[in-house]
Amino acid sequence: MARHLRSRISQLTGADTAASDDVTGAADKGGDWVLEYQSKNSWIDTKALSAKDYGYRLATITVTNNSDSATGSLRDAIATAANAGTHPGDDEIVFSGVTSSIQLSSELSISDSTGKVTITGPGADKLTVSGNSASRVFNISG
Fold first, then answer.
1. Can you give the pLDDT at residue 66?
2. Exposed, middle or buried, 118 (CB in 10 Å: 0-12/13-18/19+)?
3. What residues of the chain score a pLDDT lower than 50?
4. Looking at residue 46, what is its pLDDT?
5. pLDDT reported for residue 127
6. Cα–Cα distance between 116 and 118 in angstroms, integer?
7. What is the pLDDT of residue 65?
8. Strands across the sheet with 91-95, in order?
9. Which of 37, 76, 81, 136 could form a disulfide with 91 if both were Cys (CB 3.0 to 4.6 A apart)?
10. Are strands 100-103 and 127-130 parallel, antiparallel or unpaired?
């Protein structure tokens, strides 16, 4: 998928692009800084990516259902991102096949004390997150 997405972005924007098909990040976390797919006529310097003092890996956590608290839920993804032991550093939360509404029983607490968390949804026309008029949706601290 990374190869096809990289290729399409390059076609649409005319930009030089690169993508990885494995874990990207620090070697002691099971990653590397090699970008296996690059634009055909370009050379992208990945040395700039190999931040020697960056001891983490880049993580993408996928929400797979619209449950409030089950495995694969948004709440579960936020808890996983907050766990510095398993996902230190910056994390991105994305959605796969989740549409309609997520009805929360309590607010979702996000802290950036272990790294930045980015949540990328499928769009407001496809998914909403509701506090059910009982609580706010997000409580962000850090």
1. 95
2. exposed
3. none
4. 58
5. 92
6. 7
7. 95
8. 59-63, 91-95, 117-120
9. 81
10. parallel
Lookup: tokens for 139: 């409580």
pLDDT, position 84:
59
**SS3 letters across the chain:** CHHHHHHHHHHHHCCCCEECCCCEECHHHCCECCCCEECCCCCCCHHHCCCCCCCCECEEEEECCCCCCCCCCHHHHHHHHHCCCCCCCCEEEEECCCCEEEECCCCEEEECCCCCEEEECCCCCCEEEECCCCCCCEEEEC
Distance of alpha carbon 114 from alpha carbon 13, whole angstroms: 33
Residue 39: closest CA among 17, 13, 12, 9? 17
pLDDT value, residue 120? 87
- Per-residue tokens: 54: 């960056």
Q: CA 11 to CA 63: how far, in whole Å? A: 29
Phi, psi at 36, each rounded to 5°: -70, -25
Sign of CA dihedral 52, 5, 70, 102: positive
Q: Provide the whole-model pTM.
A: 0.60
